[in-house]
Design a protein that fits this description.
The structure holds three protein chains of three kinds.
Chain A: H1 2-24, H2 27-51, H3 61-78, H4 81-105, H5 110-129, E1 137-138, E2 141-142, E3 156-157, E4 160-164, H6 167-190, H7 192-202, H8 204-209, H9 214-240, H10 250-263, H11 269-285, H12 293-307, H13 312-320
Antiparallel strand pairs in A: 1-2, 3-4
Chain B: H1 2-32, H2 39-55, H3 60-82, H4 91-113, E1 126-129, E2 132-135, H5 136-158, H6 160-170, H7 172-177, H8 182-208, H9 215-229, H10 234-254, H11 257-274, H12 281-284
Antiparallel strand pairs in B: 1-2
Chain C: E1 7-16, E2 19-29, E3 34-38, H1 45-52, E4 60-65, E5 68-69, H2 75-80, E6 83-86, H3 98-107, H4 113-126, H5 131-134, H6 143-156, E7 161-165, H7 173-187, E8 191-195, H8 199-205, E9 208-213, E10 216-222, H9 223-228, H10 230-247
Parallel strand pairs in C: 3-8, 3-9, 6-7, 7-8
Antiparallel strand pairs in C: 1-2, 1-4, 4-5, 9-10
The chains are: A mainly alpha, B mainly alpha, C alpha/beta.
Protein name (chain A): Branched-chain amino acid ABC transporter permease
GO cellular component, one term (chain A): plasma membrane
Main location (chain A): membrane
Amino acid sequence: MVRQVKQAFFPVALVLFAALGPFILEPFDLVNLSAFSAMAIAALGLAFVWGTLGILNLGHCTFFGLGAYAYAIAVSNLGDSTLAALIGIALAVAFSLVLGYFLFFSRLGDVYLGVITLCVTLIFYSFMTSTADPSFHIGPVPLGGFNGITAVPSLNMPGDPQAFLSTEATFSICLLSLAGAYVLLSLLRSSDAGRIMTAIRESELRSELLGYDIRFYKLVGFAVSAAMAGLGGALYTAVMGYVSPNVFDLSQASQFVLWVIAGGLGAFVGPVVASFGFQLLSSQLGANQVFNTELIFGATIILFVMLAPQGLQPMLLGLSSLKFPHRFGILRRKEKPA
Amino acid sequence: MDNLVILCFAVINSIALLALISLGLAVIFGMMRVINFAHGEFIMLGGYATVIANHCGLNLWLSMLVVAPMFVALIGAVAERLIVRRLYGHLVTTMLATWGLSLFLIGAVTAIFGNTTMGVSAPLGNIPIGAYSIGAYQLFLIGITALLVVSALLALHWTKYGLIARAAMQNSEMAATLGINCDRVYAATFIIGAAISGLAGALLAPISGVLPHMGAAYVARAFVTVISGGGALITGFLSAATILGPVEALLSYFATPVLGQASLLLLAVIILRLFPTGVSSLWIGGR
Amino acid sequence: MSKVPILAARGLVKRFGGVAAVDGVDLVVDAGEIRCLIGPNGAGKSTLFKCLTHQHQPTSGHVLFEGRDLQGLATHRIARLGIAIKNQIPSIYANLDVRENIRLAGLRRWLGKRQLNRVVELTLDEIGFDERLASQPAATLSHAHRQWCELGMLLASSPRIALLDEPTAGMTREEMLKTVDVIKRLNASATVIVVEHDLEFIARLAQRVTVLHRGKVLVEDTMDKIEANEIVRDIYLGRKKEAAHAEG
């Protein structure tokens, strides 16, 4: 009972914030926090697929970017933002199924998996930067090459493209979506399917010997994480009003991974908190050339990986209760060569 | 006819380029099973070393062939000592740490030189072929790549270091009982790999210019080439380059460079679907 | 009425390079049996085990489960036929507690929640784990307890046949005796094949014993007759004499 109350604390806090935020914060902060939440939703997807299933997806931003572009294109063509967001999720999921089929049915090792997924996102980056020519367009929307798609309509009332939602309403939707994503993934993780996924992370061989089709569970988990990333991407584009190829670049890819490492592999609250923290930090750094985000985030990744491989959340929790199951950490897992 | 010559040249050039940008990575991966995510930045640093040395008045060839590899070897030695050595055996962790290093190096170079392109002009002029011309420097690149690969093969199979290295690679515990210091072998390998990457960056600098983010343009292709090559140290990545290079060159020529790159990745994914441990599993078994 | 054997191997061969580790093995195991495979080191026991469970693809020959060829079936499909496998190296979920380990094994049977819990508690009882042990992460267990935890997983998955590779390796005599009990419980509902070389363990357990030598079946009989068999004694005891010579 105590555990359930504890688990419910975080989403309830998010919901309260979604309700109260518009009354206490400036519009500028609301927009920023909406964007942070959208990113955090995507980060939750990675926290799930990496922390629960042990799939090292370094190219998680592929799905984020696909959701972002799909939303931008669909909302400009169709008008209705709800449908566009759904299309964003669907595209991300569809691509994850195709990619996942090749990755998991080839039984690639962690290292190969990480490399391939990262390469995929880099290819998307190259492709999107090469679409400056006006001949690259979908409906009336030019892909825009390096500049991406600008003036993307924001969220509107479902079914009524003219009724745009206020900054406050968008803020509430983003935070509620984050709370929803958190609850959904938590439920999934503690369900039987989620336990099997944890088991697969622990030992693929044992899971197969017990009769579980690990490729299937990995594919499902991968698709779920892609759906989260797609939703995050769609919301992010709706909030910011533009999308550029930078959603696919190396530094974007590293952000998600950094947040999950810093927040703690296997944890959910930690990565969300870390994503807010680091996004706040990078918006403070802004365009500072000397203390640029890459320098600082790169150093942070190195420090976390070397000194606190379990991340912050399990480390803090581990101090209070020594029985925390993720204490052993899968990041430091010794393994056979890929 | 001229067309055909140009096309053949493009294919060979593409294979050579893939080999050049992935050799350093292949050496490190083949020996240590570690994917060095900072590989692209080693290339970038090699380019910067060349450009800066040249701007300081040093002869271009000297900057390229001596200064750049030595500088990057030094960086590699530091990185090995501070990061990679502490994580031996933890492949995923090493990969993440080198990714952090990659970002850190991009950030550091941006902080020092700014986010702008610098360059040196390509030496050696052009060679006309009918209505077209190809850069003599490109021919030089192909030549030096071939030289590098052949000497790597020879070093691995004909020298004492190569023998020790292969022993450490095949079975580090066994090698240790024979009195080989595997840590030193790994350190040397990492440094040599870094030096080769630096040299690759130096050689590419006159063609592409240098930019803090330039590594990203090469890493995807280098990673794909090395992992679809698989376990065999030199022959693996070389055969992968030979398969992937022409496909990329032809598609880039007849369609767009991006399509060429995408096809490269797609082909690699298919290769890994067929041979999950790379094409070289065909002749060394699925190690 | 002709009975289809629960597991049969026909002309099984496994080569590594030029060496045939398993060299034409025919084996028939009837439902309900406890069968032991023994043989000196290098006889091909473990390789045969891996081939029987299709963790190694045999170079030639077939393994039939109730007349059905296992050729080409993925590992999880083989498991779903009701074949439970315990390899020589313990394979458990090290960071999950013992109860969760057992639960995951039972989960595949699609029982109701209540019934599953009952199976889990019953299994914990059968392998003799008290509440304290059951809630420990498997990684913190002693060697013998890990083996029992894995046997418990096999029990909970309610297999048709269980194949065990050296389940008593590294155990004390008391621990070995307890393992005999657990395996007998397993045998109450499943056929059991055990690869072992502890002769006392085999004597307590097996009805029929198959002796392997140099990748081939040397003889197959009851344990009494095997112990009396001259050739088998030569292989086992002769080897030991040689070894004693070499060391002495």
